[in-house]
Design goal:
By secondary structure, this protein is an alpha/beta fold. It has one domain: Rossmann fold, CATH 3.40.50. Helix content is 43%, strand content 15%. The protein has 8 helices and 5 strands. Strands 2-3-1-4-5 form a 5-stranded parallel sheet, with helices on both faces. Helix 1 crosses helix 8 and helix 4 packs parallel to helix 5. The longest helix has 16 residues.
Length: 180
Amino acid sequence: MSHVVVINGPAGVGKTTVSRVLARSHPGAISIAGDALRDFAPEDVRNSLGAGSTYRAGAALAAAYLAMGATRVIFDYVFDDAEKLDLFCSGPPHETPVSVFTLWAPIDRVIDREANRVGRERMGHAVVRTHEAIERNLHKLGRVVSNTEAPERTAQTIMEAIANPANLWPRPAPENSMMV
């Protein structure tokens, strides 16, 4: 059965690195970096496409890959509140399980990690801003996974947790279903 895995966390926490490790460990997995999707958008994306366009585009791309036969789609991006997760999770087919994991590390570790990334533009204030926003809502953002060890260890923790139904995101019934 196919599965969608959301890797959430503040800017610089290691979402894309962990997502790539997860994708390599599962045949047929696709890893989508939300930052890469955002690069397609125009500067005034909010004005032209509306709020949440990257979440909606990520969900549409995940659904397309599932329709093509991907066994697992991993989407990494910053979800600082549950409403953004709901927006993304409304896109994949309703029968597809969605697991949500929020990577977490102390702010000093995240700042240090971000400052030492090779070949990537510095994110500056976004690191602290996203860390603070997620921290306020951490209890609402899926299973929290410490990302203070090697990415392979964090990925292993997530792989072990994927099979647990407690880690599935609660998705509302589809709009066209009848309530009984």
